[in-house]
Design goal:
Radius of gyration: 23 Å
Strand content: 15-25%
Number of strands: 21
Number of helices: 15
Structural class: alpha+beta
Distance between the termini: 29 Å
Largest sheet: 9 strands, mixed
Helix content: 25-40%
Shape: globular
């Protein structure tokens, strides 16, 4: 099944400065102001490679990478290794830790059933990442994937291998990051062998994985004979790691002609129990109670200080509207909302959703409320998070969730370890 192996990571040398000032969050959540701030702190920040700018940004990234390697800012490790990575953070009022390891994973088309996606992707992001890879032959950030290990054999191994002082340990203000490097061939072989019968489930990084597949095919077409484009860099985490946190992504509605709150709720009453509630501060608590009870529920907010709780009366209605889908897909809160409310009641079809003509997203509860109060959006649907087990079951059924169904927190930091492909032509 999944083939994983160690690699000689490209990492920052001490001369580049403090590692805390050289890394950055994923490129797609960084604003231009934030990008400038990272470079103001240290001009060698990995954002110059991961999110290049200029008249020819991708060529600039390739040139910069070459210069940094030549000057010793970046150096490739002398021995292949696995890179154990831990994040410590606070979520829902609790201190949590999630730990996995960074390695190379052999690319497999989704239809092979070895590496499975769970969300739809957008072509624009894939083209951007392809051009960057084409110019640099390097993965600067890792794809985040999960694996099933009921006896937690691999977790026990990486815990034992990360008892000493980490190579890196620093905080970005919200998350403490730690990295250990494992070069012991026996230990590495044992971890790699664990995956011989396992599948991998992509948690975050669908665009980058699809890009890696496209790049692998491009290399074959161009006659690049090194096997390294057959692999991509991944962070692998036990699906039952107690530190895994998924945040909800709320839906924002805008630009609908003749939007009417009462008409919306009257139509929803056909399939939902609708309860009017006072005070938006109570939304998280009410939704959490529904989540704990296994109910399919979300909040509808259209302004003011009141809102409406929508709870699906009977899940069997989803069998009628999505007969071609698995029970796992039909049971998702986002499937219920998209199918029974956005499409059926508001007339926002799948193409509209993909183009975000009348639909946008935010993870921030306060931002969702404020956007309706300001008139920027007509309505907000406030969601519960998708369960990790639901992600697994949808992926295992060979299906994909709607875009923005999950938000794994925290995001993996970029720049601790990079996967350089040593290309032979």
């Amino acid at each position: 099944m999944a083939v994983i192996k160690p690699f000689r990571a490209l990492r920052y040398a001490d001369k580049a400065g403090s590692i805390a000032k050289l890394v950055c969050p994923p490129y797609d959540i960084i604003s231009e102001d934030e990008r400038s701030a990272y470079l103001a702190e240290n001009p060698y920040n990995v954002i110059r490679l991961e999110l290049p700018r200029g008249e020819k940004p991708y060529a600039e990234a390739g040139r910069t990478l070459h210069e940094w390697e030549k000057s010793g800012i970046l150096q490739q490790d002398t021995q292949p290794g696995l890179y154990i990575y831990e994040e410590e953070f606070t979520a829902y009022g609790q201190t949590k830790r999630v730990k996995g390891f960074i390695c190379r994973v052999k690319l497999e088309p989704f239809e092979n059933g070895v590496i499975l996606p769970h969300e739809e992707t957008l072509s624009k992001a894939k083209q951007d990442r392809f051009q960057l890879m084409q110019s640099t032959f390097c993965n600067f950030s890792q794809i985040y994937s999960l694996y099933m290990d009921p006896k937690h054999v691999t977790r026990a191994r990486i815990d034992a291998l990360s008892q000493d002082t980490p190579r890196y340990e620093f905080s970005d203000g919200a998350v403490t990051h730690r990295l250990w490097i494992v070069n012991d061939p026996v230990a590495i072989s044992a971890v790699c062998d664990d995956f011989a019968a396992r599948r991998l489930y992509i948690a975050d990084g669908h665009h980058r994985y699809e890009t890696a597949l496209n790049f692998r095919n491009h290399c074959r077409d161009e006659g690049i004979i090194s096997p390294e484009p057959d692999y991509c860099m991944m962070m692998l985490v036990d699906m039952e790691d107690p530190g895994l946190v998924v945040f909800p992504t709320h839906r924002l509605i805008h630009g609908l002609d003749n939007f009417d709150r009462e008409a919306l709720l009257n139509r929803c009453r056909e399939t939902f129990t609708v309860t009017h509630e006072e005070g938006t501060a109570s939304v998280p608590q009410k939704l959490s109670a529904c989540y704990a009870a296994g109910q399919k529920a979300f909040a509808c907010y259209c302004g003011g200080d009141s809102w409406d709780l929508l709870v699906l009366k009977d899940l069997s209605v989803m069998q009628d509207v999505l007969p071609e889908k698995s029970a796992a897909s039909r049971g998702l809160d986002v499937s219920v909302l998209h199918t029974l409310v956005l499409e059926k009641v508001l007339g926002i079809d799948k193409e509209n959703m993909a183009q975000q003509k009348n639909l946008s997203y935010t993870r921030d509860f306060d931002e969702a409320i404020a956007s309706v109060q300001s008139g920027k959006n007509q309505c907000a649907f406030l969601m519960n998070p998708t369960r990790v087990q639901e992600i697994r079951d949808v992926a295992a059924a060979g299906e994909k969730m709607p875009q923005k169904s999950t938000y794994f927190y925290p995001k993996l930091i970029t720049g601790l370890a990079m996967n350089q492909m040593n290309i032979l032509r």
